[in-house]
Amino acid sequence: MPRAFIRLLGYRALIVLAHQTLAVAVGWHIYELTGDALALGLIGLAEILPYLASALFAGHVVDHYSRRGLGAAAAGVVGIGAAILALLPADPAPLSTQTALYAVMGLTGLARAFIGPSYHALVGRALPRESFARGAAIGASVFQLALVVGPAAGGLLLAWAGTAWTYGTAAALAMLAALALLGLTVEETPPAAAASSVWRSIRDGLDFVFARPIVLGAMTLDMFAVLFGGMTVLLPAFIHDVLHLGPQSLGLLRAAPAAGAVMTGLVLARHAPDRHAGRFLLVAVAGFGVCSILFALSERFWLSAALLLLSGICDGYSMVIRSTLIQLATPDLMRGRVAAISGIFIGSSNELGAFESGVAARLLGLVPSVIFGGAMTLVVVAAVARRVPGLRSLHMSDLRPAA
């Protein structure tokens, strides 16, 4: 792998670790202050609203200004926010502290709107075209590893050193991410030609995605798989009510999907997908839905863990295929906007998926709600396969740089 891509992976790993460490500390801090589960739910809302409000604009900016500079600045915003929390007085008024915590998570959501498009746009400059699939697999593995290590490290820091040191560590990781990106040596493409307005530029990005059924179909598959496949958020309930185990089992079950995704990424890094990639994408998302249904029916811990591992394998495969497909189908001058649109598809569905799972569990019951989610995933796969026949016959080598 080129040195520039390795540095770019370092940026991604560091910023994900920083975000995960910060999120764990904020959640713990807010619950200590309030003892209210609703206050925990508001953390996600405080972060996702600025993200959704600014994502399309961020994609436009990334395509018109320095991607390295924007990605580094966004990481710096995360670092500054974490540093502010680290310097909060030990016993301030609880309401003021809550306001500061929510405000920093809002800034983090705003920064995330720039981090994703900057990273994905720079991948196209750090790698030759023939290495996109391998790069996507390695990137997915690094991302999933950081998702596992970040919360675990944040929890240990909280236990051993307290919230202030945990916030300080998150700030240091974010600043290191900014430095890693500033040191990246790639030839950045000249800025996209200025459109008549920002809104026209954003519309061009939306028109590009919606005019390409294969790109839109891949994004749709991933969005609905996340939206309806929210079994992870319900794991505490499954452990307590179905498996009848203690909280010590939660960590293993939560880690199982990420472990499966990492395994997939390592395999695909050596054997990049090409022939029948679209067909395998459909199979992988359908496999995720089947795993959800079987998980809901399982009453044995190790079977549940194995099904979660398999769901992670399916999810990891679909993630690599989608990322590679979008990279290959998107011209460099539009990568920021397309990555931002893809981020909206996936970013919003994570929070909405957690909400959907909770509502469905309340209305249908725990087990039926997950069965419903898996069945809906299969329905979406069937609909996309029928409406986008080109996806069924897609080979990666068939994709050409878009005009």
Describe the structure.
With 403 residues, the protein is mostly helical. The protein folds into 2 domains: 1-183, Growth Hormone, Chain: A (Up-down Bundle); 194-398, Growth Hormone, Chain: A. Helices cover 81% and strands 0% of the residues. It contains 15 helices and no strands. The protein has helices at residues 3-34, 37-64, 67-86, 94-126, 132-161, 163-182, 198-210, 213-228, 235-241, 248-270, 277-297, 301-329, 335-364, 366-387, 389-392. Helix 2 (37-64) runs parallel beside helix 4 (94-126), helix 10 (248-270) runs parallel beside helix 12 and helix 11 packs antiparallel against helix 12 (301-329). It is globular and about 60 Å long. The two termini are 27 Å apart.
Task: Provide the structure class.
Answer: mainly alpha
Instruction: Give me the number of helical elements.
Output: 15
Distance between the termini: 27 Å
Return the average pLDDT rounded to an integer: 78
Percentage of helical residues?
over 70%
Radius of gyration: 21 Å
Tell me the number of strands.
0
The oligomeric state of the chains shown is: single chain
Domain module tally: 2
Briefly, what CATH class of the largest domain?
Answer: Mainly Alpha
Provide the β-strand percentage band: under 5%
